[in-house]
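Internal tracking record. Fields below are filled automatically when a chain is submitted to the structure queue. Please do not edit lines marked as system-generated. If the sequence contains nonstandard residues, flag them in the REMARKS field before resubmitting.
Queue: standard
Priority: normal
Entity type: single polypeptide chain
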Amino acid sequence: MTAQELSGDQRLPIYQRLADVLRRDVTEGRLRPGDRVPSDNELSQTYQLAPGTVRKALDLLVSEELFERFHGRGTFVRRPSFDSSLFRFFRFRSSDGTSAVPEGRILRRVTENVPSYIARQLKIEEGASAISMSRLRLIDDVPIIAEEIWLPLDRFEAFLDIPTGEVGNLLYPVYDEACGQLIAKAEETLTAEAASEQTARLLRIETGTPVMMIDRLAKGYDGTPMEWRRSRGRADLFHYHTEIR
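SYSTEM-GENERATED OUTPUT FOLLOWS
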């Protein structure tokens, strides 16, 4: 393949068109999370491009956090991990004092019309059918996080066929395996509120107890909104840590 055969707008710089080709390889599944990306030399030979042009394309995709580099090993498709965000905000300890990954327990999973504010987030038509799910995260059978989740039906319909008991604690690998939908990045907003009667019942706390709320919009590698999620957790488990330099 020659540089002239690169797809995309011919007016764009060649490095940007190469980046578009590699990005599409990821979104269409030819490159998977954790896969090694062809080396600079391999891409130069395949597309008959100067090494500097290839490096510029790879630099762009690394800056977008689609790819990541490891010295001496090469460039790889980034394998995102989102459950760590809960650990950034909440202290999860089992009864013996060790760190623990919360159990995920689906309470409700139905198809219903999506509310307008969530439709705007997911960029789907207001009132369209979508998957609505309620889930608890527990440690030692004690609920600590209550989650409300919405998924576009056209992308995730196969998820409805999986028995709730077989879904497991992490949803994103299931989205990939059952629906072919890869989550690549997410935006999160953190706020505080008083627990409603419903939230209090789920978390076994008093109505009005302070809770922390994390809204997350998860997206695919091409930036398409995939999942909207609201997680409410007990404020007494909340902590925040950052390093400023």
